[in-house]
Design a protein that fits this description.
By secondary structure, this protein is α/β, with parallel strands linked by helices. Helices cover 35% and strands 22% of the residues. It has nine helices and seven strands; from the N terminus they run H-H-E-H-E-E-E-H-E-H-H-E-H-H-E-H. It has a seven-stranded mixed beta sheet, sandwiched between helices. Helix 2 packs parallel to helix 3 and helix 5 packs across helix 8. The chain is globular.
Length: 296
Amino acid sequence: MVSLLFDRPLLRARQARAQTLGPAVFLLHRVALELGERLSVVLRRFDHAVDLGTPGDAAVNALLASGKVGMVVSAHPDALRLNSALAVVADEEALPFADGSLDLAVSALALQFVNDLPGTLIQVRRALKPDGLFLAALIGGGSLGELREAFAQAESEIEGGVSPRVAPFADLRDLGGLLQRADFALPVVDSDKLTVRYADVFALMHDLRRMGATNILRERSRKPLRRATLKRMAEIYAERFADGDGRLRATFEVVWLSGWAPHESQQKPLKPGWATQRLADALGAKEMSAGEKAGR
């Protein structure tokens, strides 16, 4: 049984509130720009592409601007609110696409809030045609460590315990293993860390609210945050994570996933014993037996 870590109805409500407040999109736009750049180096065209769960139209616009895709469909629970010409109401955990129907699937800063990420990746893999590409960016485990540490210390001091406030996002090794488990060929995982500076921690929290990224953990505390705890958290954050000019650092890690639906044309590693050249010859070195000592 899948463990339900995130309250996804609450996520949708928080994202709708962010749109009302005026969304903070600097991180999303940065990711969308890189999405287009990564796609630009792929030497092929994708006729049928889908964007999975990305808030707004940033990913769709990046795909269209790349000149690499034909038709792009937005798949999102709130698809009817998007400006995209082609959209389908869909949840990232229950994709409506037929097996082998897509050439390209992308997602930007959405899949980190999926409860069953292995299941979603398997669904994406099945929806791709042979030699179809999956390319996604997720918030990684190195994100908001400063805020997590400051909250934990403040709650420990003031309330005598700690409640979950910042999601435990997945790290690189876990995500690489999930791509292999979903049977993607040529899986690649890499990350990029971005440091954003704020006048105070409340400006950071305001941005998180406008990203729709405030606490949606199912096990979150339902009690109102005590004023003393919040005040102490702000003090700890300023003490530990301020630069020389007094501005505070906040780390966002973006993890990139890519993988291909298997196809016979793709490169495959040689099986053991299939080498056509001895390593010693390639290195220009003398080969010695296991019991022979190198000369000094």
